[in-house]
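User: hey, got a sec? need Cytochrome P450 folded
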Amino acid sequence: MSGIVDGPEVSALLGELTTMVGRADPYPRYARLREISPVVRADDGALVVTRYADCSTVARDGRFVHMPPDVLAVLGFPDWADRPSLRMMFTSMLIRNPPDHTRLRRLVSGAFTARRVAELRPAIGRLVDELLDGLDGEVDLVAALAFPLPVNVIGELLGVPAPDRAQFQPLVRDWTRILEVLTPEAVDQADAAAAVIRTYLEDLIATRRRRPGADLLSALIAVEEAGDQLSGEELLTTAALLFAAGFETTTNLLANSVVALLEHPGELARLRAEPELAQPAVEELLRFDSPVQLLARVAADPVEVGGVVVGEGERIVAYLGAANRDPDRFPEPDRLWLERPDNAPVSFGGGIHYCLGAPLARLEAQVALPALVRRFPALALAGAPQRRDSLSIKGLTRLPVSLR
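Assistant: Yep! Here you go:
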């Protein structure tokens, strides 16, 4: 059995990952943590794993669960149920464990099957063309493509009217920040954003009750009205989660991918010349610079990971971004190779919490990235990208490019 390692170097490396410099390029730090030990202990007592096999275990093994929301009281928020941001997030499908998670996921999973998502390809292609048609000169690609594409796709699927969608980018960013920062200031800011989201969705649900449409929100309302499968509060939190998650990951996937391709002009040229590489290319871009860098769980029962036993109640953090650069799983892991064989990144997690929208995110990137690089052969950076201030989400808030 291996041992758990802690100490000054581990503390320093994990501390660097919380800085903007460390977040911009975490991969050398991940590599050093892997060299030190398969399992290290953070200063707050949580275990940390960085190898592909161990991160996969944490993501897929049902004995690793989310902390129940009651723990928020111990963390300084005894009134968590009265805080809009905490209640909407920590009672949502994202955080809940079986059997509630199973019930809620089953109600919405039909909208995200591979077949249903594939049927969206023509509409996504038209939307990409419309967005690219309006671009010229120097633009912020996050504002021009990486955000409007996924927010309009998920907005259409869910039933959020087009004029209302753009307002949610800063609101969702403020709300979801509580997944990694639980200071009073962060929760106050998140509460303000969550209150706006909640009020909007309450009004939209009331409208859809009167005038149902052919959208997912109307379908969920029908389930809620038909019986005991979905409560009114669960309807609202599910709608909020689906809308937020529907664009957050894809926005960062698109922005990160463009930067990676621009930094590897040979691979960019290949994608431009061979758009049929889109599917393996997106898998490799997901691996190379994952939009989701970590996930956290608690052991409900003792589980062996990385040669050590994680005890019941112990917290563990799996760095997915590190797993995707594990040389034991991916030869030459720091090389961007669009045709990488046997590619299976853990960027969307795994197990029962595997990202429900993963097929949709993949499809949007498979359509948008080849179209972008073909349309603009002189695509280039026009300034320094602005990185998102987040530990778990690796992405950009601004990506200035030249499209001449």
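Quick note: The two ends are 58 Å apart (CA to CA). Let me know if you need anything else on Cytochrome P450.
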